[in-house]
Input
Amino acid sequence: MWLVADSGSTKTDWVFFDKNTIHTKIQTPGLNPLFTSEEEIHSIAKQQLAAELRQPVTNLWFYGAGCESSAVSRQVVNALQPAFVQAHIQVNSDLLATAQATCGKDAGLVGIVGTGSNTGLFDGASITTHIKPLGYILGDEGSGTALGKTMLTKLLRDEFNAPLTQQLFSHLGLTYEQILQKVYHTPYANRFIASCTKWVHHYQDEPAMQQLIYHELTKFARLLKKYNSSLPISLSGSVAYAFKPQLQKLLQAEGLVLKRVIKAPIDGLVRYHQQAGLH
Output
């Protein structure tokens, strides 16, 4: 039995499969090692995947947000190995997952725009050039946290018109004080902030939201421009998928070509490894 996982900051998609068959798909919380301890990763893997461990997993490919250094990758291996004792475990970044799922073995400029964001240049085998994403406080341009953070800032500063302000507070079901509490005093604040993006999308025809979307996604488009590459762009992530028309227009304005957008790379990863075998 083989197992592949694609883990972002909000959710992790797992698929048990082999060379010819997909057996089971499972979704668990995100396991970004920057926010999740080794003990938590192990606990989630053991408890939520245990029911599927009727036969040993021999190969596990884990692609994760935050898994960009060898030190972090070792932490994830250490967390997963006790749950999958017979497995050969490989840990790579979620950016490589997007590249393999969208480009296969072709070169391309790739990016993730979900809860967070990430970009890189793919040569058909590995990510050769990479601008550090820096997380939701310092970076993550164009991401759900970027859009959600700007929406919340404008909402709490009364920068939207009165009807929109009232509707947003009603949708959130939170007061000014409760929003600040969730942002500054609860775990995984980035998930809460990113969850607000659904209301940005819902009200995307409002002039104030159009301006907000344009401002934040332009930052992402200009980040891709820094690669100085004419290769086509492939993106994954819920935000990229939801705001594809806006991204296409903004990338075109920067002289870039958007080739493909997928909501999640997991199905493409399964196909990639079925075709590649154990290499």
Observations:
- The longest helix spans residues 207-225.
